[in-house]
Amino acid sequence: MTTGLGAVREHWREVLTAGGRTSVPRWTLDAGSAVGDHETPVPRVIATALRLLAEQLRVPLSSVLLAAHAKVLAALSGETEVCAGYVAEPGGTPLPCRLSTGSGTWRELIEHTAGIDARTLAFRDFPVDELRAELGIVAPPFETVFDPTGTDGDLAGDTVLRLDVSPDLETLRLRFRTEVLDSEAAERVLGYHLSALAQIRADVTAPHRETTLLSAAELKLQLEGLAGPHVEVPDLRCHELFQRNVARHPDAIAAVHGDRQWTYRELNGRANRLARALTARGLRREGVVAVVTERNLDWMAAVLAVFKAGGVYLPIEPRFPTDRIAATLRRAGCELVLTEPGSTTTLRKAVESLPGVRTLFVDAAYEEDRSEDDLDVAVDSGQLAYIYFTSGSTGEPKGAMCEHAGMVNHLHAKINDLGITEESVVAQVAPQCFDISLWQLVSALLVGGRTLLIEQDVILDADRFLDRLGSGGVSVLQVVPSYLEVVLSAVAKNPVALPDLRCVSVTGEALKTELAQRWFATMPDIKLVNAYGLTETSDDTNHEVMDRAPTRERVPLGPPVQNVRVYVVDERLDPVPLGAPGEIVFSGVCVGRGYVNDPERTARAFTADPHRPDTRLYRSGDHGRWLPEGKLEFLGRRDSQVKIRGFRIEIGEIENTLLQVPEVRDGAVVVAGRGGQGTRLVAFYSSRDQLDHELMREHLGAALPEYMLPSAFHWREQLPLTANGKIDRKNLAALAVGLDAAEADYDEPVTGTEERLAGAWAEVLGIRAAQIGRRDHFFDRGGTSLSAVKLAIALDRAVSIKDVAKHPVLADLAALIDSRSAASGNS
């Protein structure tokens, strides 16, 4: 092959700048730094057939072997574009070799690798390392080496795995670093290569992406061995389990809210009266009942009443906009609404637009002359229990339907893993439209314990919240990680004793290792549980129960809970190699029915489990991988792909790298426009203190190509969150656009109080004090209810959450503080 030097240089420039280094999954619990060595024979029948095939295709045997190696790397990395170090001639230096393993047959893949093979061999004398230095590429382009020439080589530099093929294709030899792979993992990698070679031999015209490289033993391990433990669950519904405890402990306190409390007998009696009022109005099996109340004891009675009457619970928050309530009722096919007088402002208008919907007030139902005895309504385990509406990617909410069997299994998983007993007090803190609110509400009732419903204004005042946990004897609590940070900040300022607290669960966002470490440094005797799951899978499916600070860079999601199966799969729903990234999917009792009256979106996310007959499977869209401990690790989502300057970019890949920067607690990357200058990537992160952004850029630059580096980094002590505890990316995108404008309109603080307040804003919002003007609006600058809590703490309670809401402009809030100081001085 004769080619000009310019074309050769351009070839290597494209190879080096394509970006993305192919990594093999780490699979070892051994921190040692030795080199392992495994060898396996290639069956003679396969070797003979492949040599003949190479002759028939008129390609070198090395190209056939390279195709198999590319397929293995693609399976291990989860990427269709892979890069390996390739030894093109005996004793040669490994050269970067980029290969595409997209759709097609084995033959097409071999033809592709033959072209790459030929160019690599022809261009092998070019000084590639000099070009790397010239281009400023620091990171090595590959970490695996493939040598089909029959000459063994050592693991050099950053190489973690080297595969050598013996002369005449008699054996495959794998050398590997033991801090990357253990012996069993290395044997599996050799097995994948043998499997690929066998598939090529069997049918070179077959589509290579329609088969698996995994052995029968590994498939069985992933489909059976990594499932949650099998636990027998009583064939009773939630309300029936509650009724057993009513019979056992009728006078025990079941629930407390403010200064009100109900015994098991009182709660059951009220729920039964409400249930009879519903059935008297014609509630049929699986009829949908919307419950629109505040988080109080009547809400608890209403939820139990819907279950007792055989209906389907549909939670709606009273403060939802009219259009949102109407759309929810319409989509769910709701005909009955159970509410209270103080919750009808927007509800009334919504119901008026839906002629077939009737409203029943809780207090009116109580006054009806109905029995308080348990109902005789049969409710099957496969009957629909509830519908929770979640945000949809199209902007239209989806109503996830879950059955009683999934709900009861999840409740028992919480009871068993969080240690909920007859002596427990479980805090109910989540808004009623979020699925986690349900287990917080009723789990204690299934074992004879107590539920403490904590008011929202108490939750928004960290000191009062901690006081309520203590005075209420709370033993089990669940919060989002961002609020756990608020709690720890409050404890640091005003240490409190929580002698009854036994377990804290966090959910809703990724739990950072640093936050978990801070928790155990502050509360060493209280277990921390990282919970993961989705509304469509009856809430949490994985629990990582910790009694000490984690040591991994990422806190694992933990193993599946009881009776739940979790797979990590490729696009064909086949399990990927252990440790490899893939989509997290769920199978079994936890999987709901789909989205109510939404067959199109149901069909996209719910399907039959191809590995278990008559079982539903849910595709989460989340990506993760298995860890050697048998636990799941969350890697992000793959639906956040964007294009910048023509390059296809996975936002999740940048965010994962950002989260590996030392001291970064949380991070998000957004796409923002800047005038007529196109779009750019902007990174937001939270940490204890603002970091050196140039050093951060260098850290990301060592792992990412230039076009994937954010053009700006913005520090916030806490990233803004949506109502359900997710990072508010829309807020961040708006902030990215508005930061320049904010600086242009800067009006500096005038008084001493304004300057002090600007400093406090800077502390909680993560904005330089010099960027905060006296006319700035707290919530327009990224403030949230949680950051308002932090502001109140930072100002030693000089202002309250309500003060910040009423006076969000800095100058106005400063004037309020000054007026109070003056009044205090005159009194």
From TrEMBL:
<dbReference type="InterPro" id="IPR010071">
    <property type="entry name" value="AA_adenyl_dom"/>
</dbReference>
<dbReference type="InterPro" id="IPR045851">
    <property type="entry name" value="AMP-bd_C_sf"/>
</dbReference>
<protein>
    <submittedName>
        <fullName>Non-ribosomal peptide synthetase</fullName>
    </submittedName>
</protein>
<dbReference type="Pfam" id="PF00501">
    <property type="entry name" value="AMP-binding"/>
</dbReference>
<dbReference type="Pfam" id="PF13193">
    <property type="entry name" value="AMP-binding_C"/>
</dbReference>
<feature type="domain" description="Carrier">
    <location>
        <begin position="748"/>
        <end position="821"/>
    </location>
</feature>
<dbReference type="InterPro" id="IPR025110">
    <property type="entry name" value="AMP-bd_C"/>
</dbReference>
<keyword id="KW-0597">Phosphoprotein</keyword>
<dbReference type="InterPro" id="IPR020806">
    <property type="entry name" value="PKS_PP-bd"/>
</dbReference>
<dbReference type="Pfam" id="PF00550">
    <property type="entry name" value="PP-binding"/>
</dbReference>
<dbReference type="InterPro" id="IPR000873">
    <property type="entry name" value="AMP-dep_synth/lig_dom"/>
</dbReference>
<dbReference type="InterPro" id="IPR036736">
    <property type="entry name" value="ACP-like_sf"/>
</dbReference>
<keyword id="KW-0596">Phosphopantetheine</keyword>
<dbReference type="InterPro" id="IPR009081">
    <property type="entry name" value="PP-bd_ACP"/>
</dbReference>
<dbReference type="InterPro" id="IPR042099">
    <property type="entry name" value="ANL_N_sf"/>
</dbReference>
<dbReference type="InterPro" id="IPR020845">
    <property type="entry name" value="AMP-binding_CS"/>
</dbReference>
